[in-house]
Design a protein that fits this description.
mainly beta, globular
Length: 70
């Protein structure tokens, strides 16, 4: 992850991107428009560790990923 979180959408889709830390605390809640193809967010103030990204699309589809900030 470094100091920037980059999330590339293969297909533009409205939805909600939520990032939580390993303890379940929400650290980011980001609304994406229907034309969104790229999310970039500064994470230098996040602690080192594991984070979980959950994207919920407007169609109800859910995509989850784990990232580690070193």
């Amino acid at each position: 992850v470094g100091n920037q979180l980059h999330w590339r959408m293969q297909v533009p889709q409205a939805g909600n991107l939520v990032v939580t830390d390993i303890q379940g605390k929400e650290v980011l809640n980001y609304q994406l428009s229907a034309t969104a193809t790229w999310v970039q967010h500064e994470v230098s103030n996040w602690s080192k560790g594991t984070y979980y990204l959950t994207f919920t699309g407007s169609n109800g589809a859910v995509l989850r990923r784990k990232v580690v900030k070193l």
